[in-house]
């Protein structure tokens, strides 16, 4: 049965479907020896597909790992600045890639897989999978400031010299502890979006700079049993739960 080329590439673990589309439009993919740059091109199971001259294996074993990402590691397959990447940590025969991103200085739960279909589903905006962060921030947010987060705060940022404004979806927000001597507090924030620097920008908007940030849970996946730099395979039950969509919430509104 014919399938879209980018879907086949994602299923083979080449990259997510979106990243596979970019490989196609960038002229890095051939089918039966012919360059293909048009999205939507369909291929048969018997077709020979190569990415940058390397054949893909559409029957590659699907694997799933949860990593406790350490500070100072980038969430990419490679880095032009020579920094350590999450791929330097994962020592497995299968080629995997991260689902979403964590900042260079952010630690915590990161899912990696070669299941392009699941990765695409997890990252799609219409699905609302909980991401639980614990942030050490300057000062102590007031209840009024926490209410801004709970109702959805409007964030204004500057990226690459361009101004951006977005309304963050309502979040769960609670203070876990405070340190009056150091004038800091620990805040737990649960969101389901994944915008660039989102938690840091949300906290900055209400007047509290993030000093340290950890993602302690992704959906039902937590860091129990892991230390920074360690990873584990997901259980069969965890994979089934992610694939079933029971981790997703499609209803809008405040928590």
Automatic annotation (TrEMBL):
What UniProt keywords apply to this chain's record, in alphabetical order? Isomerase, RNA-binding
Q: Which SUPFAM superfamilies match?
A: Alpha-L RNA-binding motif, Pseudouridine synthase
Q: CDD domains of this UniProt entry?
A: PseudoU_synth_RsuA_like, S4
One Gene Ontology BP term is: enzyme-directed rRNA pseudouridine synthesis
GO molecular function list: RNA binding; rRNA pseudouridine synthase activity
NCBIfam families documented for this protein: pseudouridine synthase
Name used for this protein in its record: Pseudouridine synthase
Organism of derivation: Weissella bombi
């Amino acid at each position: 049965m014919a399938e879209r080329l980018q879907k086949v590439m994602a299923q083979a673990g080449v990259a997510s479907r979106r990243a596979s589309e970019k490989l196609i439009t960038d002229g890095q993919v051939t089918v039966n020896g012919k360059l293909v740059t048009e999205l939507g091109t369909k291929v048969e199971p018997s077709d020979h597909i190569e990415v940058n001259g390397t054949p893909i294996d559409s029957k590659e074993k699907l694997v799933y790992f949860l990593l406790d990402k350490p500070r100072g590691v980038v969430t990419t397959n490679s880095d032009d600045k020579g920094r350590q990447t999450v791929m330097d940590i994962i020592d497995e025969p299968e080629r995997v890639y991260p689902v979403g991103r964590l900042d260079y200085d952010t630690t915590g739960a990161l899912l990696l897989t070669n299941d392009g279909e699941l990765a695409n589903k997890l990252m799609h905006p219409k699905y609302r999978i909980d991401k639980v962060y614990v942030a050490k921030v300057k000062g102590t947010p007031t209840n009024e400031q926490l209410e801004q987060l709970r109702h959805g705060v409007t964030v204004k940022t500057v990226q690459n010299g361009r101004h951006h404004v977005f309304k963050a979806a309502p979040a769960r927000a609670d203070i876990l502890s405070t340190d009056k001597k150091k004038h800091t507090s620990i805040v737990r924030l649960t969101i389901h979006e994944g915008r660039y620097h989102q938690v840091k920008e949300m906290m900055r908007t209400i007047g509290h700079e993030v000093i340290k940030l950890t993602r302690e849970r992704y959906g039902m996946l937590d860091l129990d049993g892991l230390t920074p730099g360690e990873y584990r395979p997901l259980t069969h039950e965890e994979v089934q739960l992610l694939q079933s969509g029971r981790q997703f919430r499609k209803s809008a509104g405040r928590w």
